[in-house]
Amino acid sequence: MTLTRRRSESAPVNATRPSSALRSIRDAFANPKYGPIIGTALLLVGMFAYGMSQYRGFSNPQIVVNLLIDNAHLVVLAVGMTFVILTAGIDLSVGAVLALATMMAASLAQSGAPAGVVIPLILVSTTVLGLLVGVMVHYFDIQPFIATLAAMFLARGLCYVISAKSISIDAPFFTVLGQTRLRLLGLSVTPSVIVAVAIVIVALVVLRYTRFGRTVYAIGGSEASSRLMGLPVARTKVIVYAISGFCSGLAGVLYTFYTLSGYALTAVGTELDAIAAVVIGGTLLTGGYGSVLGSVLGVLVLGTIQTLITFDGSLTSWWTKIFIGALLLIFIVLQKILTLRRG
Predict the structure, then answer these.
(1) Greatest Cα-to-Cα distance within the chain, rounded to the nearest angstrom
(2) Do residues 250 and 118 lie in contact, with contact meaning Cβ atoms separated by under 8 Å?
(3) What are phi and psi of 189, to 5 degrees?
(4) Minimum mean pLDDT among 25-34, 260-269, 326-335: which range?
(5) Among candidates 227, 313, 299, which has minimal Cα distance to 78?
(6) How high is the pLDDT of residue 6?
(7) Which of 117, 245, 254, 120 lies closest to 174 in space, CA to CA?
């Protein structure tokens, strides 16, 4: 009888314990490595489910491809920003450097320079600018916020030195790539989307399978510990900002394909969109955790918000900023909670 009573008393306790599947789901969401990106993916799926239930034509797969077409430059910017934020840094210059790249492309193309010279020159110039920012951050111990802010003003000022007016691009190479549409699995894509996807794949491989990628994560986790382990902290931090500069220049080239013009006021505030995409994609602002794939999902979330507002038709474009700000605040709070749990 005593044995029977003990079993009956323990039954309710066992019944209240979560199953192994529920525990696995809970642990996945609580893990700062996987939880944020899972949450972003579920948010994106939920937004598309809402769109398909409310608006006719939202279920068309071309809608997703159009998000990539319209935001190919932002995907590339987010890739570079991910590298920087993984080391607990920040880069406020990416929007201005993108604008500088468009101005360089437009002015050089207008003067008759071949695309085979223009594009490499842009990429080298923006990479060197990022390299100089990395030197300022590490060797001169200047806060990334200040160093990249200075680079932002420098790049935006150089845009006005080139021209204060918009410069149209009619060079054959740019116009052909800007107007080309490729058929892939029955969907229409642009060369810019192919380039953006290739950059994402390369970044995924670098961060996951190379020593450099592991060092990037280690620096974000603890720069002091990385030094004690003998990791090349100085070289890695400088290269990270050079990568961001390269991605900004490449994003500018892709943007010229999209608009076929260069303008000094292009991409004002785009650096904040890139940061928002990276944070919403699950990369911790404190560094050490995050994924390029999550940043791409973050870009798709931003694009989906804008698409939903466009389909609605009754809301102004400013609601896009309101929804993005609310999401960003939510994800930052969740990051803080996960950081405290990790601590």
Answers:
(1) 98
(2) no
(3) -125, 165
(4) 25-34
(5) 299
(6) 45
(7) 254
Length of the chain, in residues: 343
Distance CA 337, CA 166 (A): 46
Q: Please choose, from the candidates 257, 12, 213, the residue with its C-alpha nearest in 3D space to the C-alpha of residue 119.
A: 257
CB 233 within 8 A of CB 223: yes
Task: List pLDDT tens digits, range 282-297.
Answer: 898 888 888 999 999 9
Averaged pLDDT for residues 113-142: 94
Q: pLDDT tens digit string along 311-325?
A: 877 777 777 788 888
DSSP 295-326: HHHHHHHHHHHHHHHHHH-SS-THHHHHHHHH
**Integer angstrom CA distances of residue 147 from 23, 112, 122, 222, 228:** 44, 35, 21, 21, 26
CA distance 68 to 70: 5
Residue 332: pLDDT over 90: no
pLDDT recorded at residue 36: 72
Strand pairing category for 261-262 and 167-168: antiparallel
pTM over 0.85? The answer is yes
Phi–psi pair at 188, nearest 5 degrees: -95, 120
Q: With 80 as the cut, is the pLDDT of residue 246 above it?
A: yes
Please report, as a single letter, which amino acid is at residue 209: Y
Which ranges in the chain belong to alpha helices (H)? 2-16, 20-30, 35-54, 62-70, 72-86, 94-110, 115-138, 144-162, 172-179, 191-209, 211-221, 223-228, 233-259, 270-280, 292-312, 318-342
